[in-house]
Structures are given as structure tokens and as C-alpha cells.
Amino acid sequence: QVRLVESGGGAVQPGESLRLSCETGGFTFSDAGMHWVRQAPGKGLEWVAFIRHDATNTLYLDSVKGRFAISRDNSKDTVFLQMNRLRPEDSAVYYCAKDLSPYFDLDYWGQGTLVTVSS
Amino acid sequence: DIQLTQSPSFLSASVGDTVIITCRASQDIASYVAWYQQSPGKAPKLLLYAASHLHSGTPSRFRGSGFGSEFILAINSLQPEDFATYYCQQLKSHPFTFGLGTKVEIK
Q1: Closest C-alpha among A27, A9, A25 to residue A17
Q2: DSSP character for A74?
């Protein structure tokens, strides 16, 4: 069955960096667009970034543009989120999700990884 | 950015009830709406895509409708496992914004 497993979260100080990974299985990764979505503690969902199946296009939330970078390795069925210059307001559980090709809708999600940015 | 307004933000209902959740978009988004269910401590799950299409595994008591700027999620004959938070999301243009959520609690 479809599997998405995030890793790489942790506690960092403002200004530091983290790289999240999402290892996948159970579907043809190279055919799927991939999203990152975050959820601050006790808050709602916030879409963060998207990458096309062939990595030819990426999309970002304005508040992370220039600080975060989404990428993928289709040979390893893995998507990444490089997060630089982290801010306290970036603290959240980060989920990766695959799209319901050809739609953007997020049809399967991982269990999430927690990022805490605090001094 | 396209804003989504969900209402109500909270509702209390009993097993067997029918509940209606509304999602209004700040502009025309055709049928580019998805609905998700999130239980406490769990990842969201896709219920419906393209406003009215049931995702694989979604029970038929969930129905979606709407087009343009107003959308509805209806849950018929509420079951114990349906008590959760529901989110709409627009996928017409990025950023792919979510509504603030509707928490459905047991009366």
C-alpha cells in the first residue's frame, strides 16, 4: 500500500537550518507531484510547497519563498524540504503528501515530523 | 491569494445526525476543492476531490457539492468515527489555501 514516512525534524534555534526527507513506497513516485503541508500546534493546515513529478516546476508559500527549497530524487522515491533561516513561526508538524494526478489534491499523507524553532 | 471561509468552525452533533459544512471562496474556483478529515493526533485524510468525487475508501455517507465559490460537505447518518476536524482546500491556484477547519464533536 501507499507509504510516506517523514524524517529530519527536530529542535533548532532561529536562523538555523533543517532538511526534511519523505521516503515513499507503494506507488510510482516518478508519476506523482509531491506537497509539503505544515500544522502549528493546535492550529489548522497550511500548504507550504509543491514539486511536479519531473521536478520541472516548484511552488511555494510566499512566507517561505527564498528560505525553503523542495526537491526530489526519483531514483530513491524521496522528496526533500530544505529549510534555511528558520523562524519561530515555522514551528509545526510538517507533512508530505502525494498528489492525485492529474489533480493537485493531496490523496495520501505521511504521519508528519515535528519542527521546533526556539531560542 | 484565495481565501476560504469555513462555517461553522465548531458543531456539536449526535450519532445518526446529518451535518452540513460550508466552504466559501473569495473568488471563483470552479470545482477545484478538496475536503479532508483529521482525527486528533493523526494526519489528514482526503475525503473528496474536485468538489464532489469520493476518494477511494471514503464512505458514501459523505457527499460534496458546489461550484464557483460556494461548496458543501454533507455527512449523512454521522458515525462515531466521523467526530473529527474537517478542512476544505482550494487547488485552483497557489498558494493552495485551506479553510480554518470545522470541528465536529459529540453532543
Answers
A1: A9
A2: T
The shortest C-alpha distance from A100 to chain B (Å) reads: 9
Residue of B nearest to A41 (CA): B41
Q: A106, B45: Cβ pair inside 8 Å? A: no
Residues in chain B closer than 8 A to A100 (CB atoms)? 46, 49, 55
Residue B72 has pLDDT above 90, yes or no: yes
Q: Would an 8 Å CB–CB cutoff place A3 in contact with chain B?
A: no
| Set of chain B residues whose Cβ sits within 8 Å of the Cβ of A61 | 95
- Closest residue by Cα to residue A6 from A35, A28, A33: A35
The residues, any chain, with a CB within 8 Å of residue B10's CB and separated by 6 or more, are B102, B103, B105
Cα gap B21→B14, rounded to integer Å:
15
Q: What is the mean pLDDT of each run of 10 residues along chain A (119 residues)?
A: 97 98 97 98 97 96 98 98 98 97 91 97
Residue A103 pLDDT: 86
- Sort strands A106-109 and A92-99 into parallel, antiparallel or unpaired: antiparallel
Q: How confident is the model at residue A102, as a pLDDT?
A: 84
Q: What is the pLDDT of residue A6?
A: 98
